[in-house]
Fold this protein.
Amino acid sequence: MTRILWIGGSHPRHLYFANRLNDEFGLVGALVEMRENILPEPPAGLPKIDRQNWDRHFTNRRNKEEEYFDTQRLPYCNVKQVEHGSLNSTASVEFVNEVQPGLVMIFGCGMIHGALKNVLPVAVNMHLGLSPRYRGAATLFWPFYFLEPQWAGVTFHKIVDEPDAGEIIHQCRPALKRGDTIHEVACRAVLTATFAAAQLLRCFGSWQTWKQKATGKNFKAGDFKPQHLRMIYNVYQDDIVRAYLDGELPGSEPKLRSQYG
């Protein structure tokens, strides 16, 4: 097996992924970017309805991650931690040169560019979104806002200079069940993708890839506003999956790219 380096974030879902890879394949290193608080402070001056939705949304996210991923430690391997926004530093480049990976798996960090990108071998990002329709930030949130939860999935792709635009290696999505909430689907998407990542690593070297040709949207962090949460919680009471499964929200099914047909 080739030498695998993981680069990612510090939230439980990110470390769960890293630890599963380390348990099965043995990472040569982990470069961890410290992420923002999992319970972010709301913007000042929100109306009561939006403050309540904000608290509900991010508290539910924390609680679901604790339920699915428990408390996650840093992987037992050579670990380098960097501050949020400092991923593309000289220290990160030196760490990569030290551990000499043959393959890099990425999940949950900021964009990799410049000198750091240049020293990476084959580098695969696990993007929580189905590219190219949903690229960028919060791309498991936007399918729910646009009332198409069937588009909540994961794309493994090679990294390029644009967000989530590289050649696709594999896509997957969790099965939807009545009673699913937005965060239930997000957590199961990570579980589904973690299993898929292990399968992909077992056949590394024989991957088929697909260029992204269709158009979509590159969502930026600033696109999200607290008022968007009204669609999830006040209009649909976080019951969008049930509405979709019952035929109340017709829409197209994604055509996933898969290594397995």
